[in-house]
Design goal:
The protein has 256 residues and is α+β, with helices and mostly antiparallel strands. It has helices at residues 2-12, 20-29, 45-58, 114-131, 145-158, 163-174, 223-231; strands spanning 17-18, 40-44, 63-66, 79-83, 86-88, 101-109, 184-186, 199-200, 207-212, 215-220, 252-254. The chain has 7 helices and 11 strands. The strands form 3 sheets. Strands 1, 2, 3, 4, 6, 7 and 8 form a 7-stranded mixed beta sheet that branches. The chain has a two-stranded antiparallel ribbon with strand order 5-11. The chain has a two-stranded antiparallel sheet with strand order 9-10. Helix 4 (114-131) crosses helix 5 and helix 4 (114-131) packs antiparallel against helix 6 (163-174). It is globular. The two termini are 16 Å apart.
């Protein structure tokens, strides 16, 4: 899937970067983190929107582009490239299509004012909470009682809103600074506890290629700053007990 996305992006001049655990794997392991189970990439918003349009026609038929527009039950403000011949064996209450997938995030401008940016992050957290009404929520992943209460309340209220409206609200908040030149970038479609991350804009000014599983793939020029913000001392692996698959893909079925 990653190589197919790389092909499309090279062909159409779309900028993307390895992101999150995939970027960390490229730097620390020259490939996948041994206990990771998916791929994350990120694109500047303009390139992200172009990618979504181009994928409708140019994506290999064994994969499928999943967004809230192609799957109205999909409750996330990201895109996924999903492998068609796969599915989660335990669907839960989710109505959206499941399968083995890679995540595609949009990189947006962050507000220069810390107060305004905090307000945007808060708004996104509320919207994400509303969207959890469409999911089987695992409260065990939240560390504080207040986080659990917030998710319970917002997910209950979220049932009152059509999902399409929530996605449009999220998009409006995420893109409200796209016409401005700002000092920082952010990704307002990250998971709840990662939304506060801000990256200096120069981190994503250009790309360089590095080895990933024997292929040369793009990472941001400011990869060191990015990884430090995300993981701190990123070259030190976590304790053995934390080296576990993060997404529950052990319940994945491949139908080939």
């Amino acid at each position: 899937m990653l190589l197919e996305v790389d092909r499309i992006c090279k062909k159409h001049g779309i900028r993307y970067f390895l992101d999150s655990g995939t970027l960390l794997g490229a730097i620390r392991h020259k490939g996948f983190i041994p206990w990771d189970d998916d791929v994350d990439i990120a694109m500047p918003r303009q390139h992200y929107e172009s990618f979504l349009r181009i994928c409708q026609d140019d994506l290999d038929g064994k994969y499928w582009l999943q967004t809230n527009e192609t799957d109205p039950h999909f409750p996330f403000a990201i895109a996924r490239i999903l492998y068609n011949n796969s599915q989660l064996s335990v669907q839960g209450k989710a109505k959206h299509r499941t399968g083995y997938a890679m995540d595609v995030f949009a990189i947006d401008n962050a507000a220069d004012s810390p107060l305004v940016q905090s307000a945007r992050v808060f708004a996104i957290k509320v919207i994400q909470g509303f969207c959890k009404s469409r999911l089987a929520v695992d409260y065990g992943i939240y560390h504080s009682v207040w986080d659990k209460i917030a998710v319970l309340v917002t997910s209950s209220i979220g049932r009152l809103f059509p999902l399409g409206i929530l996605m449009r609200m999220q998009h409006a908040v995420a893109t409200m600074y796209e016409s401005r030149k700002t000092k920082y970038k952010c990704c307002l479609s990250y998971r709840f506890r990662e939304l506060d991350r801000k990256f200096p804009s120069y981190v994503f000014d250009d790309a360089e290629r590095t080895e990933f599983e024997g292929h040369m793939l793009p990472i941001p020029k400011g990869w060191h700053e990015s990884l430090t913000i995300m993981y701190g001392d990123y070259m030190v692996p976590p304790p053995l007990e934390e080296r576990v698959s993060p997404h529950g893909y052990e319940a994945m079925e491949f139908l080939d």
